[in-house]
Model the fold of this input.
Amino acid sequence: MKMPKTPPNEKNLWEQVKKKPERFELIFEASSSPLVKGKYLHWDKLPFYSPPQGLSHEEWWFALKIRRRNLFKRLPLLDKKGEPFKYLEVDPIPERVHKIDQATGGFIQMPEQITNPYTRDQYYVGSLIQEAITSSQLEGAATTRKVAKEMIRTGRPPRDRSEQMILNNFKTMQQIGKLKAEPLSKELVFKIHRMITDKTLGDSSETGRFHRPDERIVVGNMYNEVFHDPPPAEQLEDRITAMCDFANGKTPTGFIHPVIRSIILHFWLAYDHPFIDGNGRAARALFYWSMLQHGFWLFEFISISQIILKAPIKYASAFLYTETDDNDLTYFILHQLEVIRRAIDQLHEYIRRRTERLQAVERELRGVATLNYRQRDLISHALRHPHHKYTIKSHQISHNVVYQTSRLDLLDLENRGLLNSQKIGRTWYFTPVSALEEKLAKLS
Done:
């Protein structure tokens, strides 16, 4: 990772242009759009494109900046010098936001596995585990996914700091869904930070509080190159108050789409970097809190961190492009909208694969001669209703057989390791085993 090239100083460019009045018209007509071939380019990327005929790259950049300046929306987020951040609703932002509205706000065209209350939990827990692992890996956790999943599913205690980070993230994401009804406050931000950093900091007093003036916090690399120097500790009280007002819709006076507001909230906490550790995880947790609060319920099943982890440099660059180009948040918004799009697509692809796998298992079961048609029908139902309880009486009624036949069916499925049994009162209840699909695959 390296710092992007700093754009030419706009005032200096203006002084140069004033010395060549004959080029005014050529420069001001050079760009009718804030985009370059459909892309919102930073100066770091502009030299790879050919400028309009007769212009230098510096003059072209000046023309783009003039065009963008007239379209910016200012935000209540200020940098350390008191200058506001801003963004453009440039293409393809409106289209992407509209597609997120369609894809995640309602139940229309949602996969049956998620809208089905009997099966949604396995997708919900799977998504929480995925987000917990990848968000922690972005911050340095070294545990493998296989080991982390085993820890969470079995409930065993974490063995090291990396596993503790992941477990904390998992518990935090579980709580975010319950906290979505609360307005954002400093106390809620601290609560989220305490959950994320529990037992992972060298000094437990560092959790759930702002860093102090004597605790200098910077973001850099192993070569001591500083990428981000956050606002001073003395500003944090006012800055977090302003962030909470923004998150709760009190500012600004104009409309900001909830998805854009959530993305800006993600950036805001990461920019302020108010804690000694855990800022990135807290920022992503606030993004989820905001999306769920605004009714984007599908984000309980979506992991943005697994997309970010595949290209962490692009994630970091989106922050740096914003800071190095006059607080232009458009770069970060565009990056995060692409991350969200890919995360939604990945969820649908995962569900498609699971559905195909389930259908394949059911087809193979039809050819298992050792199971009769009644047993195959029950197992097919169990795959879609993993928490359902079957009784000898219910199975008897469903298939119009005598009591003894029904009893033998269920006991045989239990002997094969496909059902568990438990006696409550005078009645035996049979429930599907966990990992039923895997056991059926071995059986077939």
About this structure: The first strand starts at residue 73 and ends at 78.
